[in-house]
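Quick one:
INPUT:
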């Protein structure tokens, strides 16, 4: 997927005018404080940044981003993306899905309860509009490891079970988890 998007960006780069602006934000998170550290995201982000630089992109990098670092990086990128021809965001690190929403996890996230995710992680739906300001192409790529066992995942399942028992949930509640080898879908039905 990344290769195809990078190829599309490269084609547009070579076909575009020499003075057209191409901007990118590359985030690579390895050194997590509250879940297992990762070994590859920093290297992958470095490789992507180097490739985009060779293609003529103005690349901004966030390495081992805390919530505040990632938020500030996204704000700066949003300013730079306005008026650009091509805008790309690449993220490598831990990620999770809660309530049907995908989140990018900063290195300082604790996520002790399901309600913490909106205050300690970056919602992917807030990143996508940032690349839409580009005139020709906007791309968001994420290389996410979903194997971290944040307690919020267990709390979400428990909250769904309680909601079904009290009749406050829809007929079927789905929670998407991963066992580190691939996605595992759990479905609970109200009886």
């Amino acid at each position: 997927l990344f290769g195809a998007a990078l190829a599309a960006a490269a084609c547009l780069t070579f076909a575009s005018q020499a003075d057209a602006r191409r901007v990118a934000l590359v985030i690579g998170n390895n050194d997590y404080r509250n879940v297992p550290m990762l070994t590859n995201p920093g290297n992958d982000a470095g490789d992507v940044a180097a490739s985009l630089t060779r293609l003529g992109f103005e690349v901004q990098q966030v390495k081992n981003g805390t919530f505040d670092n990632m938020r500030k990086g996204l704000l700066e990128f949003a300013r730079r993306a306005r008026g650009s021809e091509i805008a790309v965001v690449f993220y490598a690190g831990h990620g999770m899905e809660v309530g049907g929403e995908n989140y990018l996890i900063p290195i300082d996230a604790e996520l002790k309860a399901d309600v913490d995710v909106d205050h300690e992680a970056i919602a992917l739906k807030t990143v996508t509009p940032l690349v839409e300001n580009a005139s020709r192409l906007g791309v968001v790529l994420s290389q996410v490891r979903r194997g971290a066992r944040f307690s919020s995942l267990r709390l979400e399942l428990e909250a769904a079970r309680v909601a079904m028992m009290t009749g406050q949930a829809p007929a079927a509640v789905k929670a998407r988890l991963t066992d580190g080898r691939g996605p595992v879908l759990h479905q609970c039905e109200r009886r």
